[in-house]
Specification:
Order of helices and strands: HHHHHHEEEHEE
Distance between the termini: 84 Å
Oligomer: single chain
Strand order of the largest sheet: 3-2-1-4-5
Shape: elongated
Number of domains: 3
Helix content: 25-40%
Strand content: 15-25%
Radius of gyration: 34 Å
Number of helices: 7
Largest sheet: 5 strands, mixed
């Protein structure tokens, strides 16, 4: 249609152009062209309704921090008294080029090994320490960043609740937690309060794996 608009004055109107296009297997009747131009000049009821709904959808989307998907936008519009089908909201959101926030995949930090040997529980849920370097608890978690997932391991002295060692990595390998423990041992030696052999208990626990205990030597 834009081709006809561009050359209609140069080639004597719409009909000659449509005739030449038909000869080249591109059949466009003059009536088709005029009907198209009429629809452009006078939008249909559906086009007017779509334009109205797009404004409402955009308002709901922006008001809710641009995280709502089609389902939540559809529910909110109906709560406000705007009767509209969910498929219509989905279609108009695609035309607007907007979409709801998508949650990332769940990050699993611990994979249990049923065949692994369980270390004895030396704490028995008593995390009250009478002095530094008597009981350390350790765990690791993850933080989602714009660049990806970062895993963080840490060791806490239960006497002062101070983080005495930590490490971070983009992979959850054994070295991650060992680095945190090594840092805790190094830092306490640097501070002049090294652990006494046989007195420090290092406790690691998670919701997937039974607590693992060992005495530091």
């Amino acid at each position: 249609m834009s081709f006809i608009d561009e050359y209609r004055d140069r080639f004597g109107g719409v009909e000659p152009i449509c005739r030449v296009l038909t000869e080249h297997d591109c059949k466009i009747a003059p009536s088709t062209y005029y009907a198209f131009k009429k629809r452009q000049a006078a939008p249909s009821a559906r086009q007017l309704r779509d334009a109205e709904l797009k404004e409402l959808i955009r308002k709901v989307y922006d008001t809710n921090f641009r995280v709502y998907g089609a389902r939540k936008v559809w529910r909110e519009l109906n709560r406000q008294g705007h009767a509209v089908a969910r498929c219509t909201v989905e279609r108009l959101m695609r035309e607007l080029g907007i979409a709801g926030a998508v949650r990332g995949k769940r990050v699993i930090t611990t994979i249990p090994d049923p065949s692994a040997e369980r270390a004895p529980d030396l704490v028995d849920r008593d995390f009250v320490a009478r002095a530094p370097n008597r009981c350390w608890v350790a765990d690791f978690t993850h933080v989602k960043t714009f660049s990806g997932v970062v895993y963080i391991a840490f060791v806490v002295d239960t006497f002062s609740r101070r983080i005495v060692g930590w490490s971070a990595a983009v992979t959850k390998e054994t070295r991650l937690v060992l680095d945190a423990l090594d840092m805790a041992l190094w830092q306490r030696n640097r501070d002049g309060i090294p652990h006494s052999q046989g007195e420090l208990i290092h406790h690691s626990d998670s919701e997937y794996v039974k607590c693992r205990m060992f005495r530091a030597s």
